[in-house]
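Deliverable D5.2: sample structural annotation.
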Amino acid sequence: VPIAAPQNPVRRTQEERSAETRGRLLDATIECLIDCGYAGTTTTVVSERAGVSRGAQLHHFPTKAELVIQAVALLAQRRGDELRRDAASLPSGGARLDAVLEKMWTSFSGPLFTAALELWVAARTDPELHQSLYRFERQVGRAMAQLWRELGAPAAPRFEELAELTLHLLRGMALQRILRDDDKERRRQFDLWKSIVIARTNEGATR
């Protein structure tokens, strides 16, 4: 029986290997921020978790600030991609606004907010991180506004201001969760706010 000649493995390009290394470092950073907090997310720990040499880590991300900012940016991008995919299943008509607001609620209950919170606290006493995070948050804010428009949020009077207020409210509620285990009360308050936003939007639509 003839023996088949072994196939040569497909060689990956340098660009593909580099992208894989970056991805492993960023994923490891996200895990560290959630599991260990910002203080425990050292570049050494990240390198070990990612299975990447210290030299390779420094080549891709020379500073810790750059590493953690890029990691949270990747997490935000993934969350945005998920929301865009979910948009196809959102209802139409008046129920759509309710569904969009529920998506906003969910966004502040997952790993993205947990990781971002670690950076906000650390940025208060870390000038380099503060400067990088400030630029990043402005970019995220613009991207979030664009995302809600893509989701089909109503073009009612002052709706974008209501969306911004909703983000502030959800940030505050998520911070409260750290100290107080009262999810039912927070949910009740958010439902109240949601009814105000929907009523205000419907009122503007009928004028």
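Annotation notes: The CA atoms of residues 69 and 136 lie 8 Å apart. The first helix runs from residue 14 to 40.
The annotation will be released with the project's public dataset once the embargo ends.
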